[in-house]
Amino acid sequence: MKKYFSYSARHWIALILKLLGISIASVFIVLYLAGKITDVTHEIEQARNEFTAFSKKYEFFDRLRTDYARVSPHVETLESAIPPIDNFPVVANYIASAAARTFNEAVTHYDPVPTLNESSQRELSFSMEATGSLKTVRALLKEFESAPYFIEVKNLSFSFPNGLDGPTKATLAGVIYFKDAAL
């Protein structure tokens, strides 16, 4: 019986060692596969993030293309609304003739030196005193509103020295926008 027991014990020990070896090998294989799965998962996640970023950029590009198509017919009009600083006499003549067209007496003063704003455009400040009827002064303001140049009225005040039926005096201060002279 002793012989059988020792054969059996060796057999069991060998079997246990084989199972232990298989278990250790299985753990290493599972850990290796888990690492590969993690790597693939990270690659998929990174690819998804890159695709999302690309999709957003493409949507932005598509919106830009749509906006450009909608705005491009008006670009020339917008560019001509901000004339070169060399065209100051033309713009000043427009302002003087707008007062004359609307039957107002006007005196306009311009700052001697334009300033540079944050958009790299030149701003030339001006002030005007216009006298006429309420109707003609309103017509002058509409001329400024529909001017072919970008004129911004910053301050405006009305006075009625003889009541509403008499002459109206409008005092305004504004800015005319110019771009640097064409080379």
Topology:
Blueprint: H1 2-71, H2 75-81, H3 88-101, E1 105-110, E2 115-116, E3 122-132, H4 134-145, E4 151-159, E5 168-178
- Catalogue the unreliable spans: none
Number of domains: 2
Biggest sheet descriptor: 5 strands, antiparallel
Which CATH class of the largest domain? Answer: Alpha Beta
Query: Termini distance?
Result: 115 Å
- The run of helices and strands is HHHEEEHEE
The CATH superfamily name of the largest domain is: Ribosomal protein S6/Translation elongation factor EF1B
Question: How would you characterize this protein structure?
Answer:
There is one protein chain. By secondary structure, the protein is an alpha+beta fold. The protein folds into two domains: 2-72; 82-178, Alpha-Beta Plaits, CATH 3.30.70. The protein is 56% helix and 21% strand. Strands 1, 2, 3, 4 and 5 form a five-stranded antiparallel beta sheet that branches. A hairpin with an 8-residue loop joins strand 4 (151-159) and strand 5 (168-178).
Q: Which key phrases capture this entry?
A:
alpha+beta, rod-shaped, single chain, about 180 residues, 4 helices, 5-stranded antiparallel beta sheet, Alpha-Beta Plaits
In short:
The chain folds into two domains: 2-72; 82-178, Ribosomal protein S6/Translation elongation factor EF1B (Alpha-Beta Plaits, 2-Layer Sandwich), CATH 3.30.70.60. The protein is α+β, with helices and mostly antiparallel strands and 183 residues long.
